[in-house]
Amino acid sequence: MKDLTDRQLQVLQFIQDYTEKNVCPPTVREIADFFGISLKAVQDHIAALRKKGFLSQSEKRSRSLKVLRDSRPDGTGKRMVDVPLLGTIAAGTPIFADENTEKVLHLPDNLLSSNNTYFALHVRGDSMINAGILNGDIAVIRQCDTASDGEIVAALIDDSATLKRFYKEASRIRLQPENDDYRPIYSQNVRILGVLANIIRSY
């Protein structure tokens, strides 16, 4: 790639591949271990890539490297979208929704539709297992304040967030689990945070 040395291109491609596979970017040490070079050498490569406009990095957070320009000459690379991971959402009994960002996920833009805002939450519990949503998953949510019947939503009830199927009834909202061991949640005071867009699972 023009203006990059062979090693800079290799480092850039490793960061991009690692980010797409693991959702978050590698650390400086992981890059050094992969290439068998010193931390100082990695930092020099990162500094050069930042100066040339291929990378950005937050000085205040670890795992904050972000590829700004496609590193693959064949055009197969994907642009990355920042999605804040805001904490934990219940898929059982609702728990308090922590609005503090734990970290920022870098997701390929082909996983997300354009012109929308997204956030992500940890899933805890097993009330949505019949919908293929498991304890420990990360739910990527398209931010919105309305939903259609049958959509899986992140909903806020009395400052607690939960992930359930949404149904609007005559005088109340029904939040339906996908596990026969759990009962529906009925409420007249439900705030829709967004609609489920993707599930991320680590093996």
Topology:
Elements: H1 6-22, H2 28-35, H3 39-51, E1 55-56, E2 66-67, E3 80-90, E4 95-96, E5 103-108, E6 118-124, E7 138-143, E8 152-157, E9 160-168, E10 173-176, E11 185-187, E12 191-200
Parallel strand pairs: 3-6
Antiparallel strand pairs: 1-2, 3-5, 4-9, 6-7, 7-12, 8-9, 8-12, 9-10, 10-11
Helix pairs in contact: 1-3, 2-3
CATH T-level fold name of the largest domain:
Umud Fragment, subunit A
CATH class of the largest domain: Mainly Beta
CA-CA gap between termini: 34 Å
Q: What would the average pLDDT be, to the nearest integer?
A: 84
Give the helix/strand class. Answer: alpha+beta
> How large, in whole angstroms, is the Cα Rg?
20 Å
The portion of residues forming beta strands comes to 25-35%
Instruction: Quickly give the CATH architecture of the largest domain.
Output: Ribbon
Tell me roughly what share of residues is in helical segments. 10-25%
Q: Total helix count?
A: 3
Which of globular, elongated, flat, extended, rod-shaped describes the shape?
elongated
CATH superfamily of the largest domain: Umud Fragment, subunit A
Give the beta-strand count: 12
Largest sheet, in brief, is: 10 strands, mixed
In total, the number of domains comes to: 2
Pattern of helices and strands = HHHEEEEEEEEEEEE
Q: Show unreliable segments.
A: none
